[in-house]
Automatic annotation (TrEMBL), chain A:
F420-non-reducing hydrogenase iron-sulfur subunit D domain boundaries: 11-133
Protein name: Hydrogenase iron-sulfur subunit
Signal peptide: none
Organism taxonomic ancestry: Bacteria, Pseudomonadati, Thermodesulfobacteriota, Desulfovibrionia, Desulfovibrionales
GO molecular function, one term: iron-sulfur cluster binding
Domain of life per record: Bacteria
UniProt xrefs under InterPro entries: MvhD/FlpD
Keywords assigned: Iron, Iron-sulfur, Metal-binding, Oxidoreductase
From TrEMBL, chain B:
Keyword terms of this UniProt record: 4Fe-4S, FAD, Flavoprotein, Iron, Iron-sulfur, Metal-binding, Oxidoreductase
Tagged with keyword 4Fe-4S: yes
Protein name in UniProt: 4Fe-4S dicluster domain-containing protein
Highest taxon of source: Bacteria
SUPFAM superfamilies, sorted: 4Fe-4S ferredoxins, FAD/NAD(P)-binding domain
Domain 4Fe-4S ferredoxin-type: 233-263, 281-315, 575-604, 608-637
InterPro entries: 4Fe4S_Fe-S-bd, 4Fe4S_Fe_S_CS, FAD/NAD-bd_sf, HdrA-like
Pfam family, one: Fer4
Organism: Pseudodesulfovibrio alkaliphilus
Cofactor: FAD
Entry similarity comment: Belongs to the HdrA family.
Length: 154, 659
């Protein structure tokens, strides 16, 4: 797989404890080989994921962010993933406005029993990020300028 | 803060593909980490003692263990910390087994990833603070959903243990699939003779309330304090008045109603008691076939009923029950054999399912226990059994083994010989799976003592020929094609999850697998618990099971409930939301989004503020990501804690990423 051979990129995963984190565990127990780029942050529910976590990761230089929760209607907290779905969908539309390539962000639903699906999700997303390549570098001067302008605008 | 890091070898599970020593060395360079070491088995007694020693020797304030998934051993290590005198929430785990060593073989990449995961855990730990649990009281009533043998056992064990039990059954009578069976393997016990007394116990037990014809339609609350809404379907008969005399059944003119209990071999009256041993023994009306309800005429039962129990105007009603725990024992359904078009199920009258055959064998069945062909009532001579109909077959989406079909087919072959000594049984099988006590001996008896001919191979086609059926298949041991002329074909249908199982799972907030079977908390060590505290599983709703396993699980679930209720108060999880009253502007967005109604508006010195009801909050954190002010924070998963992990992860790239 191309994703494994090439140099690692930085992919952050936000996973709900009950479904997707369990699914990632199931994939591990099943010894399903996956690319190593992804680092997982465990949260109780996909509804706990503030879209700002995603933005903050991407601005700080993550090459990709993957969010995964329970399938809609199958949430441990009954409706957390519905909130997540709305927020993340809006976020996806909003990322280009922030100057971030929206293709670097994806969200999926994987249940605790779907180890094989988790492997596919990770492998596909990692490959996808490798095709996009490393996130473009941020120009420090432009950033300072933007901040000054923003400060003036306020 | 002084942090200690322990990197586990897990034998060769982790050490085989991660350089654990290098991970520990790298961990030592992390800020606030004062101690790091690698250990063979962190979860073992010496491993835990090592952690306790290090905490005391180095005066550690918090611990990171890099080992397996926190879903497995987080509680173990939290207890270890407590034994060393630390708060149990000053602990973080880095999952370097399931998420690292087991999913890749590249030692270099794995080690890099493990180092990152440890750094993330340590960064989060620097923002952790000690949390203490609150205690709350439990309602010591239990609800059992499903009145099959597993549910019956769970209900009786709980009731005998002194608990008040509410048993909810979907159909008009308890008994489940087992009550339809004629005999049980491998002892040839009469099924209803061993189940019947238990069913009567349910009806007579002072601690058990039975809701038949009822379904769970809603659930609120949490362990110790659930509120379950039960919908009681209209039976058009006042069950308090009905004595089950059966006079209405005798006189009902509409005799075409579906006979569900007899697997629709034959029909029954529109008002009926499902079977003679039914519990509760009450009549109910099938509204599809009742002449009064469909056409407005008749009403014979109403005129005849000696206790005036008929209520044509009855409607579904809802009852709310407060319980502290729930046992789910909703069982299974049988595979729809008509999906195998080549077997002609549903088209040919004499191709029937194993459960229909079971009713033909039963003395209380529609034929009084005489094996007769459904088409012409003739006694069959050649009977062909086909195994694995809807089991071990990927093409119909049932790749799993249903477990009990080999055994019930052997039983049916034996019983067939008993009923019809002149008959000959043929069994098409793939493998014989008989791993229980006395099971293999039993299948051998079917072959050796009862002369059932076992043919290893699948059937490709069944077609009718002059009143009989030609069953064409392969004998893979002989390497030949086989054709058998059969009078009756019995399809050994496999088990699948109960209809509506996913919908119920969504209401109960428990998980189910790809086939709709409910998921246990741990496949080996927590087989009757779910991931929702206070909800337990019993029987075939968790996966196909025979009677002994279902009964065993029913008792196991009851034991778990009794253990839970042995305390008057249970500890709440302190990982709940907390409002920073100074930041809160009282907008009420968190109150609107909370799925548990765990947040209330309070008046704080004349200003509206949010306040979390600690025993109700389940710790999902939806409020935290909703709050525009960041004023309500989920403890142990605060914005700062999660962002600390993000920052550590992106630090290196941050430095590289600025030009």
């Amino acid at each position: 797989m191309s994703a494994v051979d090439a140099t690692e990129l930085r992919i952050v995963g936000f996973l709900c404890n009950w479904c997707s984190y369990g699914g990632a565990d199931t994939a591990g127990v099943g010894r399903f080989q996956q690319p190593t780029d992804l680092r997982i942050i465990r949260v109780p529910c996909s509804g706990r994921i503030d879209p700002l976590f995603v933005v903050k990761s991407l601005i700080n230089g993550a090459d990709g962010v993957l969010v995964s929760g329970c399938h809609p209607r199958d949430c441990h907290y009954s409706e957390g993933n519905f909130y997540a779905r709305r927020r993340l969908e809006v976020l996806k539309k909003f990322l280009p406005i922030l100057g971030i390539d929206h293709r670097r962000f994806e969200y999926t639903w994987v249940s605790a029993s779907e180890g094989q699906k988790w492997k596919t999700v990770v492998s596909t997303f990692t490959e996808h990020i490798h095709q996009l390549g490393p996130a473009p570098k941020i120009n420090r001067e432009a950033l300072v300028l933007a901040r000054t302008l923003a400060a003036k605008a306020v | 803060m002084k942090i200690g890091v322990f990197v586990c070898h897990c034998g060769s599970n982790i050490a085989g593909t991660v350089d654990v020593k290098a991970v520990a060395d790298q961990a030592r360079t992390l800020p606030e980490v004062v101690f790091a070491s690698d250990t063979m088995y962190a979860c073992s007694e010496p491993g835990q003692e090592g952690i306790i020693e290090a905490i005391k020797e180095h005066g550690l304030d918090g611990v990171v263990v890099a080992s397996c998934t926190p879903r497995m051993h987080e509680p173990t290590f939290r207890r270890t910390l407590e034994r060393a005198g630390l708060n149990r929430y000053m602990f973080e785990m880095a999952n370097i087994r399931e998420h690292v060593s087991w999913i890749g073989k590249d030692i270099e990449a794995n080690t890099r990833k493990a180092v990152d995961l440890v750094a993330m855990a340590a960064a989060k730990l620097t923002h952790d603070k000690g949390l203490t649990s609150k205690k709350f009281s439990v309602n010591k009533r239990v609800m059992v959903i499903g009145g099959g043998v597993a549910g019956i056992q769970a209900a009786l064990d709980c009731a005998d243990g002194g608990l008040e039990v509410v048993l909810v059954e979907k159909t008009p009578s308890i008994g489940g699939k087992m009550s339809k069976l004629d005999k049980t393997f491998p002892t040839i016990d009469c099924s209803s003779c061993i189940l019947g007394p238990k069913m009567v116990d349910i009806a007579q037990h002072p601690n058990i309330t039975l809701y038949a014809s009822s379904e769970v339609s809603g659930l609120k609350g949490y362990v110790g304090n659930f509120e379950v809404t039960v919908t009681n379907k209209a039976s058009y008969v006042d069950w308090d008045a009905c004595t089950g005399c059966g006079l209405c059944m005798e006189k009902c003119p509409s005799k075409k109603s579906r006979d569900v209990f007899n697997e629709e071999i034959g029909t029954t009256t529109a008002i009926n008691i499902p079977f003679p041993q039914a519990i509760p023994r009450k009549a109910s009306i099938d509204p599809e076939y009742c002449l009064k309800l469909t056409k407005g005429k008749c009403g014979v039962c109403e005129k005849l009923c000696p206790t005036k129990a008929i209520r044509f105007d009855q409607v579904d009603r809802e009852v709310v029950e407060s319980v502290g725990a729930i046992v789910v024992a909703t069982g299974y359904d049988l595979f729809d054999h008509t999906r195998y078009g080549e077997y002609g199920g549903g088209r040919y009258a004499d191709v029937i399912t194993s459960m229909q055959y079971e009713r033909l064998l039963s003395a209380s069945g529609p034929t009084g226990g005489h094996i007769k062909r459904p088409s012409d009532g003739r006694e069959p001579e050649n009977i062909v059994f086909i195994q694995c109909v809807g089991s071990r077959d990927k093409s119909v989406g049932r790749p799993y083994c249903s477990g009990f079909c080999c055994m019930y087919t052997a039983k049916q072959a034996i019983l067939t010989k008993d009923h019809l000594p002149e008959s000959q049984s043929y069994v098409f099988y793939m493998d014989i799976r008989a791993p229980g006590k006395m099971y293999d001996e039993f299948t051998r008896r079917a072959m050796e003592d009862y002369g059932a001919k076992y043919i290893r191979g699948r059937v490709s086609m069944i077609h009718p020929k002059g009143g009989r059926y030609v069953v064409r298949g392969a004998d893979t041991l002989m390497g030949t094609a086989v054709e058998i002329e059969a009078d009756l074909v019995v399809l050994a249908v496999g088990a699948e999850s109960a209809k509506g199982a996913p919908q119920l799972a969504e209401k109960l907030r428990i998980s189910y697998d790809a086939y709709g079977f409910y998921m246990e908390s741990h496949p080996k060590l927590r087989p009757v618990e779910t991931n929702t505290a206070g909800v337990y599983l019993a029987g075939a709703c968790q996966g196909p099971k025979d009677i002994p396993s279902s009964v065993g699980q029913g008792s196991a679930a009851a034991a778990k409930v009794l253990a839970l209720f042995s305390k008057d108060q249970v500890e709440s999880d302190p990982q709940i939301s907390e409002v920073d009253i100074k930041r809160c502007v009282g907008c009420g967005k968190c109150i609107e989004t909370c799925p548990y109604s765990a947040i209330e508006a309070i008046d704080f010195r004349g200003e509206p503020k949010a306040s979390v009801i600690e025993t109700i909050c389940q710790g999902c954190g939806i409020c935290t990501s909703t709050c525009p002010q960041g004023a309500i924070q989920l403890q142990h998963f605060t914005d700062n804690q999660i962002l600390a992990e993000v920052n550590v992860l992106c630090q290196q790239s941050m430095q590289q990423n600025y030009e």
